Amino acid sequence: MKKRVLSGIQPSGKLHIGNYFGMIKRMVEYQNSSDLFCFIANLHSLTTISDADTMKKLTLDAAMDMLALGIEPDKCHFWVQSDVPEVAELTWILSCITPIGLMERAHSYKDKVTKGISPNLGLFCYPALMTADILINQSNIVPVGKDQKQHVEMARDIAIKFNNSFGETFVIPEPEIPPEVATIPGTDGQKMSKSYNNTIPIFDDEKVIKKAVMGIITDSKGVDEPKIAKGNVIYELYKLFVPNDEALIFKKNFEKGGMGYGDAKKLLLEKILNEFKPYREKRVELEANPKKVEKILEEGAEKVKKISLSTLNKVRQATGLKY
Ligand code: ADP
Ligand code: TRP
């Protein structure tokens, strides 16, 4: 039987190349070799978005982004999280066997609190909902960036605890994080993230993409000076778009001197615009037909609901909630 691969993306803003290489590209590749589950995690976004129109717009935008980037609904399960509310019941059941201490150790939660966000209960329970997403579909593999590793490990811990307490019910999932795309750097050298304002967006205006690339922060080495490629944001991003031999030529030119940061950025920009051109065109087509996208999502939810319900019924039985 094909392995089940599952991952979700929050509808919370503009997709960037960190999302693409960290998760989406692999998901698209998995469509041909696995049983793929890909969803828009709007219940997760509700922890931060409190305006209905914004939520609706971002949800449809995220769906169009994923379809434009190559998700094919005929080859996988593709849906919006809140259309399959069974996951919320499972979240409650799992939260009754989840130690508070486990949630308190979540880096992502702690970081947000340190940054001054006043947390709601939803944000605190976020990893329990993510666990339910993963377990309700009996997922084997969860492709994510490194920032999500701990959440997937929590899902493993909770699945093991449930199976030990109530009998074998859940598949134990594995995070999948290839080291070369675990943390894509942003324009300031930190992890690329919407929250850090350091992203290179995929579907924005070309001018916006150009501004982001040309704004990559570098040291002040002149054109002729040799530069260190490893760890340099321009080189690290360039490598993602080209085969190894081409990356090596770039590295040599960079290290021997004679290639300025401005020229290197222009080469990178060209690669980015070329890579995403067909996807940007597809995105425009989809925008013209939102009803079609809504229908795809409706059909996707119907398909996945059967699987979610079948797991949930096992859980209801195992816990005695079905009497
Ligand atoms: P952001 O940090 O911009 O809010 P999300 O949390 O929405 O991004 O991430 C969606 C997916 O993309 C997750 O699987 C996450 O691990 C991955 N991802 C996000 N940023 C990066 C990055 N800089 N490098 C690698 N993967 C990333
Ligand atoms: N928390 C993930 C993120 O912010 C999104 C997500 C929600 C997810 N549920 C999931 C990812 C289940 C993988 C599996 O990126």
Walk me through the topology.
Blueprint: E1 4-9, H1 17-30, E2 35-40, H2 42-45, H3 52-68, E3 77-80, H4 86-95, H5 100-104, H6 107-114, H7 121-136, E4 141-143, H8 149-166, E5 174-176, H9 206-214, H10 233-241, H11 244-256, H12 261-287, H13 290-319
Parallel strand pairs: 1-2, 2-3, 4-5
Tryptophan is lined by residues 6-10, 41, 44, 130, 133-134, 142, 144, 148.
Structural commentary:
The protein is mainly alpha-helical and 323 residues long. Helices cover 56% and strands 7% of the residues. It is built from 13 helices and five strands. Strands 1-2-3 form a three-stranded parallel sheet. Strands 4-5 form a two-stranded parallel sheet. Strand 1, helix 1 and strand 2 form a beta-alpha-beta unit. The longest helix is centred in the last third of the chain and has 30 residues, at 290-319. The protein is globular, with a radius of gyration of 21 Å. The relative contact order is 0.14. Bound molecules: adenosine-5'-diphosphate and tryptophan. Adenosine-5'-diphosphate binds at residues 9-10, 12, 18-19, 22-23, 144-145, 147-148, 181, 183-184, 191-195.
Structural class: mainly alpha
CATH homologous superfamily caption of the largest domain: HUPs
The coarse silhouette is globular
End-to-end distance: 33 Å
> What CATH first level of the largest domain would be assigned?
Alpha Beta
What's the main sheet like? Answer: 3 strands, parallel
The residue fraction in helices comes out at 55-70%
Specify the oligomeric state: single chain
In the CATH hierarchy, the architecture of the largest domain is 3-Layer(aba) Sandwich
DSSP strand tally: 5
Gyration radius over CA: 21 Å
